[in-house]
Design a protein that fits this description.
The protein is an alpha+beta fold. Helix content is 24%, strand content 31%. It folds into 2 domains: 247 residues, 3-Layer(aba) Sandwich (Aminopeptidase); 68 residues, OB fold (Dihydrolipoamide Acetyltransferase, E2P) (Beta Barrel), CATH 2.40.50. The chain contains 7 helices and 20 strands. It is globular, with a radius of gyration of 23 Å.
Length: 358
């Protein structure tokens, strides 16, 4: 009798489990609606307003089994090509039939920047697409686009991975950002994914999510909404190098492996070098810049890392490292304008410090 009772209880449990409805039988982002086990392509359709309409490409990979939702985003700066290309290739590397959970891939937010080869901003309204969250449905194109990204990509996601790479004017070494909020569980989850992404260097940045100025970026906004969020960068000076593309694809797959969303062994990081956000030197006036130091090199405070000239080649000054540390990126082209970043130098941390509210 006892055996029969146990069997009956197990049977009832299995029936109840089988009858439990799928909390998300389909996932819709923009025009893409995917059922379980499907990859569907579509777009976020940004309507016309005070300026032109635009469409942002998106893919939805809805795993065969329920689980977390991870959003991979790139192209906030449309000429950071390596990260854009990496996400277009990532889509085909994820088999929805073997995936637990769901993946949203938005490889190119700033379409106009990409098409018109404009650095840093959206040329339609001259606004930064990584500096205006949560957007505004009644605003200019950038604001309307970001409102859709916030509502349809960030809102359903549990994890947001924001990919970047050196823009046309940036000769950048690969690194991740460990952005901390002071919420221990959220910060620990982010650190785990930074280590899984497996870039050798991580910039440590502490933010206050109650400060509106700190949550205007995609990462800051996502963190303010309680999402586990990391940023990773690889790429430089407009080049689409295989090594940079592959490290972003591999890191993204490692995130899914770490979250147990796909079968993928994630080797532990042997060593990660933590650095501060660093100090930038900005151009005081237009002219030409020539780097004399390379990215990914250590420099002393005051070391000459480049020089500037006017448009006739007459020297106007030396550019010196503002602090001792690692050159995380240096300007890769001669053109400069007032306020243009010429170099960023980040002090190396000997240990990972505790969170400090800014």
């Amino acid at each position: 009798m006892k055996t029969l009772l146990i069997a009956a209880i197990v049977a009832v449990g299995l029936i109840a489990s089988a009858q439990t409805p799928d909390p998300r039988p389909t996932l819709t982002v923009g025009t893409a609606t995917a059922s379980r086990g499907q990859t569907v392509y579509g777009e976020l359709q940004v309507p016309a307003g005070s300026d032109a309409a635009t469409n942002l490409p998106v893919a939805v990979i809805h795993g065969a089994k329920p689980g977390p939702v991870v959003a991979f985003v790139a192209g906030s700066h449309g000429t950071e090509y390596a990260s854009v290309v990496a996400l277009t290739k990532l889509i085909g590397r994820i088999d929805p039939k073997l995936l637990t959970g769901s993946v949203i891939v938005a490889p190119l937010l700033n379409v106009a920047s990409f098409e018109q080869m404009t650095v840093h901003t959206n040329p339609i309204d001259k606004k930064g697409m990584n500096a205006g969250y949560p957007g505004n449905t009644d605003g200019t194109q950038t604001e309307r686009a970001l409102a859709l990204v916030a509502a349809q990509i960030v809102a359903p996601a549990d994890v947001v991975v924001d990919l970047h790479g050196g823009d046309l004017d940036e000769d950048l070494r690969p690194y991740s950002y460990l952005i901390r909020t002071g919420n221990a569980a959220q910060d620990d989850a982010a650190k785990k994914l930074v280590l899984a992404f497996a870039l050798s260097h991580a910039i440590v940045r502490d933010i206050d999510v109650t400060n509106p100025a700190s949550i205007r970026s995609l990462s800051g906004y996502s963190l303010s909404k309680g999402k586990t969020t990391i940023v990773a960068e690889a790429g430089r000076s407009g080049l689409v190098l295989t090594a940079d593309v592959n490290v972003l694809i591999s890191g993204s797959l490692n995130v899914l492996g770490s979250l147990k969303m796909m079968r993928r062994a994630v080797p532990p990081m042997v060593k990660v070098t933590y650095v501060e956000g660093g100090s930038r030197v900005a151009a005081e006036k237009p002219g030409m810049f020539y780097a004399t130091a390379a990215r990914d090199t250590m420099v002393a405070k005051g070391a000459i890392v480049g020089s500037t000239t006017d448009y006739l080649g007459r020297k106007t000054g030396d550019i010196k490292a503002p602090v001792a540390g690692l050159i995380t990126f240096i300007r890769g082209v001669p053109s400069m304008w007032t306020g243009a970043t010429l170099v960023n130098v980040s002090p190396v941390l000997t240990t990972l410090p505790a969170y400090k509210k800014p």
